[in-house]
Amino acid sequence: xxxxxxxxxxxxxxxxxxxxxxxxxxxxxxxxxxxxxxxxxxxxxxxxxxxxxxxxxxxxxxxxxxxxxxxxxxxxxxxxxxxxxxxxxxxxxxxxxxxxxxxxxxxxxxxxxxxxxxxxxxxxxxxxxxxxxxxxxxxxxxxxxxxxxxxxxxxxxxxxxxxxxxxxxxxxxxxxxxxxxxxxxxxxxxxxx
Length: 193
Ligand SMILES: Nc1nc2c([nH]c(=O)n2[C@H]2C[C@H](O)[C@@H](COP(=O)(O)OP(=O)(O)OP(=O)(O)O)O2)c(=O)[nH]1
Known about the structure:
By secondary structure, this protein is mainly β. The chain is built from two helices and nine strands.
């Protein structure tokens, strides 16, 4: 149930009003010194969603949207388009649909990840050194033969905001992770524009 009185933690940026959707965990929010900016992009089309199996680096072995670091001089929207092309070989009219903030225990920097989506794309989807692209059912077409979104093989926070994303809501939130990748504390909500 939503609860409009819950106050979002530091790091959650939003305009207007927020509804609190889900939160949990114990103890204080972890401290951070600086913030690194990342992007993550999804293609959603006709009841399907494109995810990539991460073949190296951060999030190895997990399915995710396509993205990476925002480079100096770039906006996050520019970085999102560049990363999608580098990691899946396609370009798309991406629009921002969410904003997430993460802290990993033991790292001084926090991660701010802008999430993007598009319903169309240009080019041919290819496997790259970083990502193995695969289509999944987004749950909107019961007759789909595609596998469901593999939440058990995705970052632990994704199950909290994915329902808002799939409902085309603008979502925000924060998750604090332990060094071994467990969620210590989290808060996710919907931005009312
Ligand atoms: N869905 C989801 N994505 C996450 C979480 N945490 C997190 O870093 N990501 C995304 C942001 C980026 O799209 C991706 C990490 O980027 P990356 O592995 O490509 O980073 P990198 O330093 O190699 O950057 P680059 O070379 O590609 O620019 O993982 C999370 O909790 N959930």
